[in-house]
Amino acid sequence: MGAANGDAGIGLAATIGALQTGFADRPGPYRLRLLRMLGVAVAAGTTSALAVAASRHGVLSVLLLVVLAFGAGLLLSAGPAATQFGVAATAAALILGHTPEPSSAAVHVGLLVVLGGAVQTLLAVAAWPLRRHRPERVALAALYRELANAARAQRGTVAGPPAGDALGDARDTLYGLGHDHGPSVEAYRVLLDEAERIRRELIVVTSFAERLAEQRNPILAGLVRGSLTAAASVLDDVAAALDAGRAVDEDVSARARRTVGHTVDRLEDSVDAPAAFTRRATASRLRALSGQLRAVVQSSRTGASEGRRGERHESPTGRLLHDPVALVRANLAPDSAVLRHAARLAVVVGASDTMVRAAGLDRGYWVALTLLVVLRPDFGTTLQRSAMRTAGTVLGLIVATELVHWLPGGDWWHVALVAVFAFGMRLSGPANVAPTAVSLSALVVVLLQIQGVPARDTVVDRAVATLAGGALAVLATLAFPAWERRFVVERLVALLRAYGDYLAAVVDPDTDRRRLLAVRAACRLARTNAQASVDRAAAEPVRGQPQVELGRTVLAHSHRFVHAALTLDAVRVPLRDAGGLARITPFATRAGEVLGALAEAVASQRPPPRSAALRPEQEALFALLDEHPETVGGPGVATAVAEATDRITDSLDSLVAELRRQREPAPLALASGDDQPRPR
């Protein structure tokens, strides 16, 4: 727009708005993307206007940045979208606040920033009328592709339940803020529900295949694994159909159902008495899996219409799965790592901006901007982002400088380079720090060239500023550490308690679908948080090996527990209909008590009591199931329950024994020396 008016420089404010708004674009329904991007554009425009109004008053400018940086740090608790909201608002103010302008220009600059963001938003959602439900289909396709990989890999109980993150992403897309409505979306929600059921069946059938192999039935185990591979072909085709907006190939699903049917016949015809329970349970779950695959094929026909059958607008019935305001409010506690991060970010951004203003450095805001982007609550992530940001920036500076030097001059050539580098930045995505930094730094070189700053003068200043910002971010995490090892125990306790709540909900006959969805989501979140916490603690340069070993122990044994609990979840409906939930409630209650004792032992850093044993209750339940299988819905269900409770018992008893082994020689203590860096 600026080049068309004969002065490309007047488009810089709009370019900044478009740039920050582009970073806010993330996968999701078009309505959500529209609201999110326009919100970021308005926020960036507002803070830009405030920054320009205060640009001739150094103290006011720094105070504004301190407040904005604190808010940006606090928004980290509400997820990536909220984090980008805070970063965009702060970054726009940081850049434009270093260009002294009269206060009368504040509104004009703010409107240009909003205009640039609005144009970026329109380009991002331009395909909405033509491909209305593309985001929903993409999220479901990713989920079904992960399920296909899980059915093919058959990793069993050595790993956690598969596709947890993809399942959460798909549910957020279909039920979260800005979700769409109509027949196609209802079909997508059916596909989501079926995917969750298929996920449980895959876990259960894989564990039964392992058990058949352990019982020296390699042929039957191989047939079961072959059926899972056949199911994977259907799931792959479902993913491809969702990507393309077409119906599933009926031939693929028919072949898979024939394979599963043959395996079921072989399982039922076998005369191997020792494995009779396992065979019956496996046949029952394979029949359920076959029915679910058939339901997926049928539901995909409506979803493939992509809204062309006349969408009916209905009032939304879902609720937000995560309340950002509640998350931010919860992190206002003094012991919150996010609150400490917000305070640290505000201090270092404000201090660095004060120093560059006092030194009179041109474009010294790059130091604070780097701090804003790379600083995170934990050391490992901060170090990684700092290194990638620095390397990407240096490479981008070199590439852009050479291009500006060799290409002909003129605003239109510069505009073309802006388009190329902006495309590269959007293509890389916000999660890929190094590639994004390459395109972003190159884009900045071209924008400054438009403003009259020679490209070669930019290289050294920008490289040094980025290096300084990255180094300051790492030093800030070392000077004011929030070592992840301090939070490992807390997250492990949350995981064990979430699993206890899940088991209690599964065996409670009054549990409705909403409660089940809530406890399942809580388990996935708790496991993700615990795994990430252990991984970050292992990467820290402090002595946190006891916490890491504890975390890996709990995660390894809880893998087996949750696989077994998912088996109970998979047979919950026939159990409930037969009145069998009451039969397993005493065992589940005792298992919940053991989980509570384990959580207390982890939290108090003491060994769990020896009385936390579950085997006697499981043996009593097994005897009941063996003698009266009809009380829980028949032999197939009885076998599944017996197998699941046996694995629950084994996993929890093993975890009790392992924690006693770790804790009895020397209780886990947070010694003062643990905070010291490890010798290299």
How are the SSEs placed, and which strands pair?
Layout: H1 12-23, H2 30-53, H3 58-74, H4 80-96, H5 106-124, H6 134-153, H7 164-175, H8 183-214, H9 218-244, H10 250-269, H11 276-303, H12 324-330, H13 337-359, H14 365-374, H15 379-406, H16 411-428, H17 433-451, H18 455-479, H19 485-507, H20 513-539, H21 545-570, H22 572-577, H23 581-604, H24 615-627, H25 635-663
Helix pairs in contact: 1-2, 1-4, 1-5, 2-4, 2-5, 3-4, 3-13, 4-14, 6-7, 6-8, 6-9, 7-8, 8-9, 8-11, 8-21, 9-10, 9-11, 10-11, 11-25, 13-14, 14-18, 15-17, 15-18, 16-17, 17-18, 19-20, 19-21, 19-23, 20-21, 21-25, 23-25, 24-25
Overview of the structural elements:
It is a single chain. This protein has 680 residues and is mainly alpha-helical. It has four domains: 1-129, no CATH class; 134-303; 333-482, no CATH class; 485-670, Methane Monooxygenase Hydroxylase, Chain G, domain 1 (Up-down Bundle). The protein contains 25 helices and no strands. It has helices at 12-23, 30-53, 58-74, 80-96, 106-124, 134-153, 164-175, 183-214, 218-244, 250-269, 276-303, 324-330, 337-359, 365-374, 379-406, 411-428, 433-451, 455-479, 485-507, 513-539, 545-570, 572-577, 581-604, 615-627, 635-663. Helix 7 (164-175) packs antiparallel against helix 8 and helix 23 packs parallel to helix 25. The radius of gyration is 29 Å and the shape is elongated.
Short characterization:
Keywords: Cell membrane, Membrane, Transmembrane, Transmembrane helix. The protein is 74% helix and 0% strand.
